[in-house]
Amino acid sequence: MIRVTHRISIDENELEESFVRASGPGGQHVNKTDSAVQLRFDVRNSPNLPDDVRGRLVRLAGSRLTLDGVLVLVADRHRSQMRNRVDAQERLIDLIREAAAPPPPPRRATKPTKGSKQRRLDGKAIRSEVKKMRGRGGED
User: What is the mean pLDDT of the chain?
Assistant: First the structure.
């Protein structure tokens, strides 16, 4: 079991990994080994995700989610397959943790106070006077 939060754990059997050839640095090595990792996690059918987290995870996943509800993460930052596997799992855990955090409460619209309006207008009047004094002096 992979511990995500204190109330969410994911069974390792729910993760499906496949290995593909990676692009990028690595020289000849990159042409011969399957070091990139494609991690697949079935978001819609996972029994370990609460419904509220599942909904937020679907929104966060965006284009990484297939039509079947499978989240696909590709990790090819590192040259070694093992480091890419760890990277893909960490990214999945981070994404689920972000989805597990409850959304902030909606902002309540407020109006400026009478005093703050008056201070703003006083400041504008002072600034206006300063700018008027910069003009050319009248002819005597």
Answer: 80
